[in-house]
Structures are given as structure tokens and as C-alpha cells.
Amino acid sequence: MTAIKVLIVEDEPLIARNIAMYLRNNDFEVSAIAHDPEEALFQLKRQPPDFVILDINLECERDGIQIAEHINHNLFIPFVFLTSYSDKETLERAKKTNPAGFIVKPFNEQTLYATIEIALSNHAAQANRHVPELTLDKLNKHLLAPLTDREFEVVRLLYAGKTNQQIAAELYIAMNTLKKHINNAYFKLDVGSRTTAVATLRALMVG
């Protein structure tokens, strides 16, 4: 799939469904909805997403902060916290996990999208700060089938943490055209998701 895959961890079904609707409206793929920590951990292992929206206050033995700690220890993916009310101690615990952002309930579609957009960009900047700049010549030396100039432009923006909507707007191309370029790039990189594509690109640039 070419869309950014998002795991939603939210114990209130109505809020979870609204988030899923907002995400799909903005060309994200909802990889799964987890209503409790156990389901969240299962989904993280079964199909690692590109991004996680994580409620802090899950009505369970574990809270969202503990899931965030698991993500930090086992997966290099960005996440944002959902919160409606939290005491100072809980918020301090949450900050220590270095989330990519916070979304305060109630929120609307525009707020959700803007928070994710900023979070993805910041995460990419942090992850790429010690990696050489992505260049077409160096990248193509490692590939059996070289990327075209347009495919490289798409890959460069994926690497920078841009969403599909941002890439399509920046390159002045239709979404269907963009998805074809992403699929072609994935095939040449021998990857099946955005997370693995970005990880592969970093490895090729360092190598």
C-alpha cells in the first residue's frame, strides 16, 4: 500500500471511529484499531504501522505511556498522544517517551491532520540528521533497476516525512499518478511499506 499506515489505540469506540474517518478522508490507511493495550501490542507486532495515535488514559492496567515505551524500545516509528485530562505526573511520564506530538480532546479533522503532518516531518528530520543527503546517483548504484527522476523526487519527499497530499501538491501531480510512482519506487527498492522504504534508503545512503 502507498498510504501512510496508522494504528489507532483508543478505548472509546466512537472516538476511534471518528479518527479513522478523519484519517481516510486525508488518504491515510488505518492499519488497525486497538481498544486495549494487549490488542495494541499484538497489532504492533503483527503489522508494524508507519505511525501510531495513542490515547494516554486507557481504562486498563497498562496505559498508553507503557505502549509508547514499548514502541521506543522495539520500533523506530513516530507516535502522538491523545489526551483529555491528565495529572502533572502523568504528563511528565508521557513527555519522557519523546512523543512526536500531543492531540487534546476534543479535536477536529484539521487539527488531527496538522499534528500528524508536523510529527512526521519532525521525526524524519531527527532520523535523517546523521545520514548523508539522498542523491539519485548514489541511490541508483545500489539498485538493479534505477529510479527515474520523477520517482526520485517522490522518494526524496517520502524520506523527508511528507504525506501523500503534501507530495502531490508539491509536485503538481494527481493522487493516482503519485501512487503509481510510489509503487514503482517500492518495487525497485524491494520494499512493501513506507517505513521499510525509508529504512532502506537510510541504509543505502550510509553504506
UniProtKB/TrEMBL annotation:
Residues 140-205 form the HTH luxR-type domain. One of its GO terms (molecular function) is DNA binding. It holds the Pfam family Response_reg. Keywords: DNA-binding, Phosphoprotein, Transcription, Transcription regulation. Coiled coil: none annotated. The modification 4-aspartylphosphate is found at residue 55. One of its GO terms (biological process) is regulation of DNA-templated transcription. Transmembrane segments: none annotated. The keyword Kinase does not apply. Residues 5-120 form the Response regulatory domain. This is Two component transcriptional regulator, LuxR family. It comes from Haliscomenobacter hydrossis (strain ATCC 27775 / DSM 1100 / LMG 10767 / O).
